[in-house]
């Protein structure tokens, strides 16, 4: 089963600390949503409010069209997969997975059969008679998933479930989680601070910071067309170039920066058309820099830049560059692995116009 | 080829560190115990210790009712005390862990074990003040006209049990509380999330998870209770002697060391049996 | 509604048990101030005469001093031996280390009465006179397992590299122990020490069987008990209790309060 989830103006205040600040969110049934952000950004608080372990100071939670704001966890169509898995150490896997069914009064034979089915789903059918301490971290994580799914929830909440696993296992579990979610069709809400994990599994990502939602959308949108400086920086490496809007001409705006004037199409401004005099931040990902002349399509030239340092990363060279026109600026750019790169080398830098995103400059909040 | 490796010197040093403790334990615990075990196989006749190996003391123990009764009394009292103490302490530990606000828990716990710091001998004595014929309870009840004659609540098994339970409720509250708070709160959340109500969560999750703690505390209670001389001697009167009292009698008036030694061995065997019965749970805790 | 009910029931229950726990102690302390010869109701009035009697009792004061010395010395020895053994067993691979650990812990599972009786047998056999020394030996036997267990369990593997670093920088074993290991483990060493002091201070049966003329406080109180209910016993009992609680409060507020935060 599956259900849509809506959060309306949720605020959670602990003493003097605002963990959630007027958050609203609409999740469709069957979506895989990832709440992404640094620790303390409010993502875990939001998950607890969805699961019913905390109630919002203000605001409402609606699941499957019903108001669940003050419904206890047991009565919600949600189950949570805990960060430490919280598998009952004294029970066999079969009994762990069957626990929720037992609480619903299902007879032993029936729930054992169902539990086996869910253990099979996560590939642990043959370990049904083992106890949690006999399992590896990845296996425990799977049992926790099976236990949470066994009660047929509409929404599954996952609290950094992959945090304790090593990198390789994590990648593997991400694929499995995604596959299982596709199979059962349940709405998944997954919390993590790892942006690669978020991109690997999410249908849509919610980027959070300081109790607010910074950005919300499919992974590609968030990476390519971020709608906040924080979101751009959190999703991967990015160069920020400050500038000021001079004036607008038809469908583009002229931005004055330290590397020269750049005429940007209005669609580069992801949060709305700019007004003259406005301070903006241009975001350029390192892999979007080109040597002038190598780029295709409409390009912006950024003038010459000197390589001040470089390292070979396998798929590319990662170079630090100093633009001749703005020696205070340090730019990180990726050069092709076949490139001839040396310190002190001077390159003519260019960027595809479509790859530049312009955001209102941040004042105060970082 | 007898080169002294780095590991050899290291090991020699390590032996040097561990040796004092080992020697102390062997010299003042193991050797005395072996002496006592040997002594239990001798006997005492007309003031002399006869160094002939036999099992007479052990046979005497099973034949003489006055001796054997000591063991059954000890076992009965110990079992009653252990069960009562667990039943009384568990709810208190639970209330402190679950119902008392976090910042007052340490205080609540310290208060619950504060009377530990009365002297051990004095603790039993103070129950005498409460329970004796002219003690607090009798005088209070008589003042309110609830009874006309003082109740006989001191100098019997009831008084011994009360004195013991008083001590072990404190001890068990401590061990069970420690066990309760180290459980991840996510166990409770997970159970609630999967639909268990408070009672089901307690019965299926919390109780089984605290069982090792309960059993450790119960075993400790058993060991300390069955070997105690002071409490029954002060509170129990002379009608139902427990094993340690009988051992002390052999030492005192009769100076029958071999018999005292034999009875001590029997006391130890009782503890060993209790350990074997509890071992299943005592082991889980390490896993 | 049910919440309120369980809350009321919880606190009522806790109140009852706390009452049970404190009843004898309250009676003990109250009647130590009894103006009269019997420490039972009715309370005749407030008097410090029994405290004066306690301080005037030379035997009681001597026993107090004896208890103090035995507790401190035996705990120091138990802690030192326990620490060295824990260091060796946690840091070096020794053959039969499981057996050694078992041996060191073993006295914990045996009744004090049996430990005392065994020692008494040996001392009698070799004609060694009973004294405070023999009591102290017995108290080290019961406290060594405790100290060893507490210190051993706090010697985590994460300390190994810190000690290796010290050794690498030129410290020998004793310097490592004194300057690195012991300070790192200070909270558990102190806990072991104070626990041993408490146990030794309060121990009766070993002190009773292994002493002759110089006795410890519990043994002296024991002989006071022969005179039946006596406010003087209340007074010495209350004194020990109140001083212990005061020491505990000071320790809680200074030492353990600090270590908890760090």
Automatic annotation (TrEMBL), chain A:
<dbReference type="InterPro" id="IPR050093">
    <property type="entry name" value="ABC_SmlMolc_Importer"/>
</dbReference>
<dbReference type="InterPro" id="IPR003439">
    <property type="entry name" value="ABC_transporter-like_ATP-bd"/>
</dbReference>
<keyword id="KW-0547">Nucleotide-binding</keyword>
<dbReference type="InterPro" id="IPR013611">
    <property type="entry name" value="Transp-assoc_OB_typ2"/>
</dbReference>
<dbReference type="GO" id="GO:0005524">
    <property type="term" value="F:ATP binding"/>
</dbReference>
<keyword id="KW-0067">ATP-binding</keyword>
<dbReference type="InterPro" id="IPR017871">
    <property type="entry name" value="ABC_transporter-like_CS"/>
</dbReference>
<dbReference type="Pfam" id="PF00005">
    <property type="entry name" value="ABC_tran"/>
</dbReference>
<dbReference type="Pfam" id="PF08402">
    <property type="entry name" value="TOBE_2"/>
</dbReference>
<comment type="similarity">
    <text>Belongs to the ABC transporter superfamily.</text>
</comment>
<dbReference type="InterPro" id="IPR027417">
    <property type="entry name" value="P-loop_NTPase"/>
</dbReference>
<protein>
    <submittedName>
        <fullName>Spermidine/putrescine transport system ATP-binding protein</fullName>
    </submittedName>
</protein>
<feature type="domain" description="ABC transporter">
    <location>
        <begin position="5"/>
        <end position="235"/>
    </location>
</feature>
<dbReference type="InterPro" id="IPR003593">
    <property type="entry name" value="AAA+_ATPase"/>
</dbReference>
<keyword id="KW-0813">Transport</keyword>
UniProtKB/TrEMBL annotation, chain B:
<feature type="domain" description="ABC transmembrane type-1">
    <location>
        <begin position="71"/>
        <end position="278"/>
    </location>
</feature>
<keyword id="KW-1133">Transmembrane helix</keyword>
<keyword id="KW-0813">Transport</keyword>
<comment type="similarity">
    <text>Belongs to the binding-protein-dependent transport system permease family. CysTW subfamily.</text>
</comment>
<feature type="transmembrane region" description="Helical">
    <location>
        <begin position="21"/>
        <end position="42"/>
    </location>
</feature>
<feature type="transmembrane region" description="Helical">
    <location>
        <begin position="257"/>
        <end position="278"/>
    </location>
</feature>
<dbReference type="InterPro" id="IPR000515">
    <property type="entry name" value="MetI-like"/>
</dbReference>
<feature type="transmembrane region" description="Helical">
    <location>
        <begin position="77"/>
        <end position="97"/>
    </location>
</feature>
<feature type="transmembrane region" description="Helical">
    <location>
        <begin position="161"/>
        <end position="181"/>
    </location>
</feature>
<keyword id="KW-0812">Transmembrane</keyword>
<keyword id="KW-0472">Membrane</keyword>
<feature type="transmembrane region" description="Helical">
    <location>
        <begin position="104"/>
        <end position="122"/>
    </location>
</feature>
<feature type="transmembrane region" description="Helical">
    <location>
        <begin position="202"/>
        <end position="230"/>
    </location>
</feature>
<dbReference type="InterPro" id="IPR035906">
    <property type="entry name" value="MetI-like_sf"/>
</dbReference>
<protein>
    <submittedName>
        <fullName>Spermidine/putrescine transport system permease protein</fullName>
    </submittedName>
</protein>
Automatic annotation (TrEMBL), chain C:
<feature type="transmembrane region" description="Helical">
    <location>
        <begin position="102"/>
        <end position="126"/>
    </location>
</feature>
<feature type="transmembrane region" description="Helical">
    <location>
        <begin position="12"/>
        <end position="33"/>
    </location>
</feature>
<feature type="transmembrane region" description="Helical">
    <location>
        <begin position="132"/>
        <end position="155"/>
    </location>
</feature>
<feature type="domain" description="ABC transmembrane type-1">
    <location>
        <begin position="64"/>
        <end position="251"/>
    </location>
</feature>
<protein>
    <submittedName>
        <fullName>Spermidine/putrescine transport system permease protein</fullName>
    </submittedName>
</protein>
<keyword id="KW-0472">Membrane</keyword>
<comment type="similarity">
    <text>Belongs to the binding-protein-dependent transport system permease family. CysTW subfamily.</text>
</comment>
<dbReference type="InterPro" id="IPR035906">
    <property type="entry name" value="MetI-like_sf"/>
</dbReference>
<dbReference type="Pfam" id="PF00528">
    <property type="entry name" value="BPD_transp_1"/>
</dbReference>
<feature type="transmembrane region" description="Helical">
    <location>
        <begin position="176"/>
        <end position="201"/>
    </location>
</feature>
<keyword id="KW-1133">Transmembrane helix</keyword>
<dbReference type="InterPro" id="IPR000515">
    <property type="entry name" value="MetI-like"/>
</dbReference>
<keyword id="KW-0813">Transport</keyword>
<keyword id="KW-0812">Transmembrane</keyword>
<feature type="transmembrane region" description="Helical">
    <location>
        <begin position="68"/>
        <end position="90"/>
    </location>
</feature>
